[in-house]
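chain below, 250 aa
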Amino acid sequence: MAIKAIVVDLDRTLLHTDKTISPYTAEVFKKCKQKGIALMVATARPYRTMTQFCEIIDFDAISATNGARIICGDYRKEYGLCPASAERVLTALKSYPDYRVTLETGEEAYSNKPIEDYFTVISDDLAAVARSEGAIKILISLDTPDILETVKKMLTDDLYYTVANGHLIQIMSRAVTKWNGVKDMLDISNISAAETAYFGDDHDDIEPIRMCGIGVAVSNAIDEVKAVADHIAESNDDDGVAKFIERYIL
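prediction:
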C-alpha cells in the first residue's frame, strides 16, 4: 500500500543532536509534500518550543506534548491533567524539595529549580500554578534511581508515567499518549495507520511504531524500540529519517 502520511518524532530522531535540521532533510520532506504525502510530527515537546522546526518543514499536522495538544489547520484539541490529580501530585512533591520538578501548562513551563538548557518560570508553589493555569504534563528529573519509585506511589488512577531519554519522568493523563495523538491526526486527515510510516527512538514511540504500516527506528534508538521496528534507519545525526524516506518511500 502506498504511504500517504509520514509521522516523525523530533528529538533524537529527526533533529540532529545539536537540535538542527539539515538542508538535505528539509529538501527530502519538501519532495514528500510535492508528491502529496502528508507530513506530521509527534513529539514530547510543547508547541512553543518547536515553531522554528515548523518554519523549516511545513507539517500538515502536529501532536505536541506527547499528544496532549493536536493542531491541524484550524483544528485544535487539548487533553489536560485532571485538576485535582495534578494538584495532589504537585502537593506531594513539595515534601521532596531536592527533586527538580517542572509543570507544563501548555502556554508556559514552571519549575521549582532552574533547569539546564530549558527556560522555565521559577515558582515555589506549582500546585497553585496548576490551579490557576491548568496542567498538561508534570516532569521530574530522575537524578537518583529511588525517585521513580517514590513518584509512582503519588500517581492517581487517571495518571501514568513514562521515562524519556533515561533521565526524565513524564506524568500525563491516561488519555494522552503518542499513539492517541497520531490517531487524532490521521483521523482528521482521513488517512489510515496502514498508510502511514512512523519514525521514532524512545519508549513513547513503541506503540505508534507497532501500529503504523511501516515502523522505523533510528539506529540510536533504545533497544526496546529497535526490537519492535520493521526497519532500522541510520542515526539522527546521519539524517537516517530522510535517507530512509528517499530510498524506500519516494
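The mean pLDDT is 95. The first helix runs from residue 10 to 14.
thats it, cya
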